[in-house]
Amino acid sequence: MRTTRRGRVGRGVLTGLAALISLLFLLPVVWLIASAFRTSRETFASSAPLTWNVLWPKEWTFVNLESAADAGFLTNLGNSLLVAGVTVVVGLMVSAMAAFALAVIPFRGRATTFAIVVLSFLVPFEAIAIPLARTFSDWNLTNTLLALILPGLGNGLAVFTLRQFFLGVPHSLAEAAHLDGAGWWRIFRDVYLPLCRPALIGAGLILFLFQWQAYLWPILVISRQELDLAPVAIAKSFGAFTTDYGRVFAETAVLAVIPAIVLLALQRFFITSVASTGSKE
Question: What are the residues whose beta carbons fall under 8 Å from the beta carbon of 270, sequence distance 6 or more?
Fold first, then answer.
């Protein structure tokens, strides 16, 4: 009986400690969101000493959001949503087919091809960004949304994630489908894809976050302000002599909240998919 009580007390202490640590990690996020709804003068005036006003504005205002909208940030945000959305849809198709081939279809050089895929996401993108930008310039793809989308379609980490999941699917399912006369495309579409929903969600998040936080690549291939992505637009908000920090806080808060909402929304589907998906030999 005492052991049971001690176990409950221990779990309660650990739960409380985890909640406290989570709140500490959330404090900078709360401060950022609160700063989006107050003037720049109030933001820096209330930063010290540490009081409740740091996390809760004395007077709420939408001036910063209006300033961001007037500066064309909504257009830049729309560009980011479009680029990330197209990359997720098309990139998942490309990654899933590549992962299926590397995991299920036997062909000569499969191990070497997979090694190249792994190497592709071990090499930092910054190391190849400049020569790749020169190639895009030679192809006349600069200052186009296509230039922003194409590099995100072939994501080695997404292919690796899906391949590892496909390897866990019993090969007997593919053999049984083969005996029924199904080809590789039908096996991929009707057998593997319905089972890989959790992996697709995980790979989709990888593709989304890769494009959502892109900064260096858009700077290299885009020079027109109306085609800038949201992170680049925020960087350009800083002036040489003066900066509207309230507007910067508002734009940064919007940029941070959207992926947070996506992650929270997909988390439920991810857990449900993991709990309800599976196969047995």
Answer: 198, 201, 202
